[in-house]
Design a protein that fits this description.
It is a single chain. The protein is of the alpha+beta class and 488 residues long. The chain is built from 23 helices and 11 strands. The strands form 3 sheets. A 5-stranded antiparallel β-sheet has the order 5-9-8-7-6. Strand 1 and strand 2 form a beta hairpin. The mean pLDDT is 92. It holds the Pfam family Ada_Zn_binding.
């Protein structure tokens, strides 16, 4: 995108917010970089240059605009859509892997050498993994400075900086303000609760919240998730501790309230909440492709901007997909709640009814299969899955190779195409995952005049690629099901 100069200039001159996060505009005369929708008067075209990431702008010596705050723009949808090395690396960096394990840890997770990873990121993004992680630390620091009353020394280490000096130098370089000046400019708020942060998660409009939050609320596992006071709330297992996220839809952002046992988990918690709600999607590109099918177009026009509800824990979702095989949504919730009560890690929630973290694969692998109240074949499917996850033979995280993960899932007993594609859609984040055998999809297809047999529907859906997972959301929306409606 940033290489198409004419396209970028037009986007900046029209202040088109759809391109925020796709590329960044650096102004040669002021040495400031902005998002395309910056409200200031656009610079002359000859004074603009374009970069694919905030890190590349910073590395080239530009500082962030104080008006449009380009470091807070939505993430590039490229990293969710693509499955190549660069996309997998970017998802891992967003999940804080470089801060916790360094560049060698990032390369090891990807199965490449450190040199290969650095070369690929530099070639495409103009910045290596350390620079990308540094830009992310700067944004985390800014959030903590502006939304908490923590001392600066605590913020420095919570944001991932190795020293207070590095924290001060980076903040000054990136934002042209010292940390204390940033705090002085921030809106005043009342005294906060220790470990609790309130922030706004941006997204590209349009966003249709009903199916997104309706699905999460309707399938919520008691003790782990709930809908309360207009917000979806759930527990989070994080690298340094645990947390609780409360997410509520607003017209131009998602209101996010995070309660963290360790503030070093802030970056990871934000990344997982964004991934859960598919906030880095490009709804305009998705809807334009789906509107090209005349039978699908009325669904898109009726409620544009549908997202794919994903997950904050890929292993958890895979387990829940197995529990939901051939049973109702209510029965799947009951099965999952039993596992949570018996094997989940308890936690306190002073603000609501959340009681546990969902049990991890290691805990579930230690469960006596005879205690599981389910048919023997599904019991075998579940125990085989959790053993593979616990042993590290099956990877479903943000760095997973989607094709390899699909193949491994299909090789497990009890895993058919429907289960594999649901996991691909919700856990692996594949925007092109498709469910032609799903009863709701087939019923909706028939009502619209689309082919309803799996083979014929798959052939018709070739024109919807690479956004077939979003087409599934539109097809499900034709069904009178509680997952399609925002709870009261």
């Amino acid at each position: 995108m940033h290489l198409d100069r004419e396209h970028c200039v037009r986007a900046v001159q029209s202040k088109d917010a759809r391109f925020d996060g796709w590329f960044f505009t650096a102004v040669l005369t002021t040495r400031i970089y902005c998002r395309p929708s910056c409200p200031v008067v656009p610079p002359k075209a000859q004074n603009m240059t374009f970069y694919p990431s905030a890190a590349a702008c910073q590395q080239a010596g530009f500082r962030a605009c104080k008006r449009c705050r380009p470091d807070t723009s939505p993430g590039s949808p490229e990293w969710n859509r693509r499955a190549d090395l660069v996309a997998r690396a970017m998802r891992l960096i967003a999940d804080g892997v470089v801060d916790r394990e360094g560049v060698p840890g990032l390369a090891a997770r990807l199965g490449y050498s450190t040199r290969q990873v650095e070369r690929q990121l530099l070639a495409e993004l103009g910045a290596g993994p350390l620079a990308l992680a540094r830009a992310q630390r700067a944004q985390t620091a800014r959030l903590l400075v502006e939304t908490s009353t923590l001392p600066m020394a605590e913020i420095a280490f919570a944001a991932g900086f190795a020293s207070i000096r590095a924290f001060n130098d980076t903040v000054r370089e990136v934002f042209a303000l010292s940390p204390s000046e940033l705090r002085a400019r921030a809106p005043r708020s009342g005294p906060g609760t220790p470990g609790v942060l309130t922030l706004r998660l941006p997204f590209r409009a349009p966003l249709h919240p009903s199916n997104l939050f309706g699905h999460l609320a309707a399938t919520a596992v008691p003790g782990v998730e709930e809908w309360r006071d207009g917000a979806y709330r759930r527990t989070l297992r994080l690298p340094y501790g645990h947390g609780i996220a409360a997410l509520a839809p607003r017209p131009d952002h998602i209101a996010c309230r995070l309660t963290l046992s360790d503030l070093r988990d802030l970056t990871v918690a934000i990344s997982r909440c964004r991934r859960l709600l598919d906030l880095d999607a490009d709804p305009v590109a998705v809807d334009e492709r789906l509107r090209a099918d005349p039978l699908l177009a009325p669904l898109v026009d009726r409620a544009p901007g549908r997202r794919v509800p994903r997950t904050v824990d890929e292993a958890e979702f895979a387990v829940r997909a197995v529990l939901g095989q051939q049973v109702s949504t209510a029965a799947a919730r009951t099965h999952a709640a039993r596992l949570v009560t018996a094997h989940g890690k308890p936690l306190d929630d002073p603000e609501g009814g959340l009681t546990h973290l969902f049990p991890d694969p290691q805990a579930l692998a230690a469960v006596d299969p005879e205690t599981l109240a389910m048919p023997r074949t599904r019991r075998t499917t579940l125990t085989t899955l959790v053993r593979q996850l616990a042993d590290g033979d099956l990877h479903l995280g943000v760095a997973a190779d989607r094709a390899e993960a699909r193949a491994r899932l299909l090789a497990l007993p009890g895993f058919g195409p429907w289960t594999v594609d649901v996991i691909a859609m919700r856990a692996l984040g594949d925007p092109d995952a498709f469910l032609p055998t799903d009863l709701g999809v087939r019923r909706a297809a028939k009502d619209l005049g689309l082919p309803s047999t799996p083979a014929a529907l798959t052939a018709r859906a070739a024109g919807w690629r690479p956004w077939r997972a979003y087409a599934v959301q539109y097809l499900w929306a034709t069904d009178d099901h509680p997952i399609n409606f925002l709870p009261a």
